[in-house]
Amino acid sequence: MIGELEFERPVVELRKKIDELKNLTKDADVDLSEDIERLENRLQKLEKDIYENIKPWDRVQIARHPSRPTTLDYISHLFTDFFECHGDRYFGDDEAIVGGIAKFHDYPVTVIGHQRGKDTKENIRRNFGMPHPEGYRKALRLMKQAEKFNRPIICLIDTKGAYPGKAAEERGQSEAIARNLFEMAGLTVPVISIVIGEGGSGGALALGVADRIYMLENSTYSVISPEGAAAILWKDASQAKKAAETMRITAPDLKELGVIDSIIKEVKGGAHRNVKEQAEAIDMVLKKSLSDLLSLDSDELVAQRYAKFKQIGDYSFVKQFTGVN
Amino acid sequence: MLKDLFSKPKKKKYATIPSERDKQDIPEGIMSKCPNCKKIMYTKELDKNLKVCLHCSYHHPMASFERVESLVDAGSFVELDSEMVTVNPLDFPGYLEKVEQDKLKAGLNEAVLTGTGKIRGNDVVLAIMDSRFRMGSMGSVVGEKITRAIEKADELKVPFIIFTASGGARMQEGVISLMQMAKTSAALKMFSSHGGLIISVMTHPTTGGVSASFASLGDYNLAEPGALIGFAGRRIIEQTIREDLPEDFQTAEFLLKHGQLDAVISRLDLKDKLTNILDIHIPGGVWK
Ligand SMILES: [Zn+2]
């Protein structure tokens, strides 16, 4: 298997052994069918054990897999007639975010997503999918355009975070993210966000104030990377594995915390094993949620979106000491 | 220029919290030492000057209740949601113990104080963050209290003023903390769409998720001199771009220069300037 990860090595090794035995039976005149069957049963069980109980840190590795499908991969499978729009109209075109108009089963939509590169060269051009303010401002421009033409908006989230750089700060990284949160909250068209890879902090959330929020099964969504959390909490970036668990960043965690609407199941071993199949799973979810959302008028949409975010948070009340009896 | 009036902290890259040794150098309580110019002055005089150094104009951190005292008409402040307290949504080890420690240390329930009050007769809703509590970080309680304060301003149809002081997200509340950025921003959008006036006053420090949400969403974005304001931490940026950053990087003055602020205002002038803005908005009103 190409690009296998540490946690799935037992599966890979067992499969290799079965293949060896099969080859052996071909060449030498021995009957190993019973052994092969036994091993194949074991492989099935092992696959079930491993792929149905993926540990948080292993999910992080899948989310970061170099061949994990990107926004443009999904765009080509999910939509037709995609027309990419460039630029924020103020400063430049940030290729860490792509966006444009397209059709989803003949229905016009606007689609926007973070875009990582497939190789080093493309990653440099796309700044590893870490946007500058102009990326967020381009996204917002396209959202307002979608609102004008009454098109639903689909956002694909896949970033380690907004780029921490000098120019980004000078041009108002904070303001650009904040503005998106603010304006997305008021959009009068349906907004659906799907975390397809890493959902890193404010840089991810700036495409995430949506009516429906989904996560691919092996994606992550967090306030800080596991490495960053480990460095801050335990002054030790090598504790990232522990942080990935403590910080609760996986799709099942976010579902349990009530932050996302649902999990989109991944192809066994991760989305990179079969993009087309993965896109079909996303397609089904999009169809359903779009038809639900399109039945709401704009006031209902905005009110429900407000309520959705208002309920996130956990707190309690104490009786305050008001005086001496 | 404002920049000339207030001499900047010299080569001070990170938050200036007086060290234990600084504190021991001087008689506890009676005298205070400025962490910027190192001069010693009577604490009483410093307090009377709204904690602005008498020698170099360095703005010492201000507790939330001191801020109320410095701005709000006597007797007009009514606190909101004072009984709301933090729980542990992620079951993060040791989190509530840390919160309890800060409660005792800072004498606060959480990192933001909210309430209604009057500034020179103008009704406002205020939210004042306090960096002494968990570095002013935003968790569920901070997000919810600010959201409720905005909703209160909307209900009363009065301006909303927020004083930010925060290191960003509350790490121990993970993604719940992140979502408070969306919640508070959505509340401001709702308030704004009704014509509500939003004034943000950024104080030292205003960074991370707080900078990237309500702090930057004022109709008027103001800041105190020398305040550190930015999205990413200076050290992270230096590691990423591998070059030295200008000395004034991410200061209020730097943001003003780069078009990110309406004004940098001395704490001594703040009440006048806020009144100025309020006066222009309140008479006609644009409430929908
Ligand atoms: Zn001084």
UniProtKB/TrEMBL annotation, chain A:
What's any GO biological process attached to this entry? fatty acid biosynthetic process
> Which leading EC class covers this enzyme?
transferase
Give the subcellular location. Cytoplasm
| One Pfam family, short name | ACCA
By its UniProt entry, which Gene3D superfamilies does this protein fall under?
A: 2-enoyl-CoA Hydratase, Chain A, domain 1
InterPro entries reported in the protein's UniProt record: Acetyl_CoA_COase_a_su, ClpP/crotonase-like_dom_sf, COA_CT_C
Enumerate the UniProt keywords alphabetically.
ATP-binding, Coiled coil, Cytoplasm, Fatty acid biosynthesis, Fatty acid metabolism, Lipid biosynthesis, Lipid metabolism, Nucleotide-binding, Transferase
Outline the extent of the CoA carboxyltransferase C-terminal domain.
38-292
Q: Provide a GO CC annotation, any one.
A: acetyl-CoA carboxylase complex
Q: A Gene Ontology molecular-function term?
A: carboxyl- or carbamoyltransferase activity
Give the residue range of the signal peptide: none
Positions in coiled-coil regions: 11-49
Enzyme Commission code(s) on record: 2.1.3.15
The pathway that the record names for this protein is: Lipid metabolism; malonyl-CoA biosynthesis; malonyl-CoA from acetyl-CoA: step 1/1
Reactions mediated catalytically: N(6)-carboxybiotinyl-L-lysyl-[protein] + acetyl-CoA = N(6)-biotinyl-L-lysyl-[protein] + malonyl-CoA
Q: What does this protein do?
A: Component of the acetyl coenzyme A carboxylase (ACC) complex. First, biotin carboxylase catalyzes the carboxylation of biotin on its carrier protein (BCCP) and then the CO(2) group is transferred by the carboxyltransferase to acetyl-CoA to form malonyl-CoA.
Q: Which family does it belong to?
A: Belongs to the AccA family.
- What's the protein called, per UniProt? Acetyl-coenzyme A carboxylase carboxyl transferase subunit alpha
Annotated source species: Peribacillus saganii
Q: By which gene is this protein encoded?
A: accA
UniProtKB/TrEMBL annotation, chain B:
**UniProt xrefs under Pfam families:** Carboxyl_trans (PF01039), Zn_ribbon_ACC (PF17848)
Residue sites binding Zn(2+) per the record: C34, C37, C53, C56
Cite the SUPFAM superfamilies for this sequence: ClpP/crotonase
Q: Which InterPro entries match?
A: AcCoA_carboxyl_beta, Acetyl_CoA_COase_Trfase_b_su, ClpP/crotonase-like_dom_sf, COA_CT_N, Znf-ACC
Zn-finger (C4-type) residues: 34-56
What is a single molecular function from GO for this protein?
zinc ion binding
The protein's assembly and partners: Acetyl-CoA carboxylase is a heterohexamer composed of biotin carboxyl carrier protein (AccB), biotin carboxylase (AccC) and two subunits each of ACCase subunit alpha (AccA) and ACCase subunit beta (AccD).
Q: Where is the CoA carboxyltransferase N-terminal domain?
A: 30-288
Q: Which UniProt keywords apply?
A: ATP-binding, Cytoplasm, Fatty acid biosynthesis, Fatty acid metabolism, Ligase, Lipid biosynthesis, Lipid metabolism, Metal-binding, Nucleotide-binding, Transferase, Zinc, Zinc-finger
Q: Mind telling me which NCBIfam families this protein's record contains?
A: accD (TIGR00515)
Gene field = accD
Q: What is this protein called?
A: Acetyl-coenzyme A carboxylase carboxyl transferase subunit beta
Does Repeat count among this protein's keywords? no
Source organism's superkingdom?
Bacteria
Gene Ontology cellular component annotations, sorted alphabetically? acetyl-CoA carboxylase complex
Q: Quickly give the catalysed reaction.
A: N(6)-carboxybiotinyl-L-lysyl-[protein] + acetyl-CoA = N(6)-biotinyl-L-lysyl-[protein] + malonyl-CoA
Q: Which cofactor does it need?
A: Zn(2+)
The protein's organism comes out as Peribacillus saganii
How is its cofactor bound, per UniProt?
Binds 1 zinc ion per subunit.
Q: E.C. number, please?
A: 2.1.3.15
Tell me where in or outside the cell this protein is found. Cytoplasm
Q: Name one GO biological process term.
A: malonyl-CoA biosynthetic process
The similarity annotation says: Belongs to the AccD/PCCB family.
Q: What does this protein do?
A: Component of the acetyl coenzyme A carboxylase (ACC) complex. Biotin carboxylase (BC) catalyzes the carboxylation of biotin on its carrier protein (BCCP) and then the CO(2) group is transferred by the transcarboxylase to acetyl-CoA to form malonyl-CoA.
According to the record, the residues making up region (Disordered) are 1-20
- Associated pathway: Lipid metabolism; malonyl-CoA biosynthesis; malonyl-CoA from acetyl-CoA: step 1/1
